UniProtKB/TrEMBL annotation:
It comes from Trifolium medium. This is Myb-related transcription factor.
Length: 67
C-alpha cells in the first residue's frame, strides 16, 4: 500500500526543543520577609577564676572518666 501510494502519512511538525532555555525560570526578588531571627544576649563575663592544673585534670577525669 505504501509503494502504490494508497497509504500516506501526514507530515507532523515536531515542536522545537528548547535546549538552551531554563525550564524553571526564576523571578527576581528584591524584598524578603524575615522568617525567623535568632538572637544571643552577650554580657560581659564575670571575673575569671584561676584553677590549678591538677584540680582541672581532676575535674576533667570526673566528667570524662575514659579520657
Amino acid at each position: 500500500a505504501l509503494n502504490e501510494g494508497r497509504l500516506k502519512f501526514a507530515d507532523k511538525a515536531k515542536p522545537h526543543m528548547k535546549v538552551d532555555m531554563d525550564p524553571l525560570p526564576t523571578a527576581n526578588a528584591t524584598y524578603v520577609e524575615v522568617y525567623d531571627c535568632n538572637m544571643v544576649d552577650v554580657v560581659d563575663p564575670g571575673p575569671v577564676k584561676v584553677v590549678p592544673e591538677e584540680e582541672y585534670e581532676k575535674k576533667v577525669r570526673e566528667v570524662y572518666p575514659n579520657a
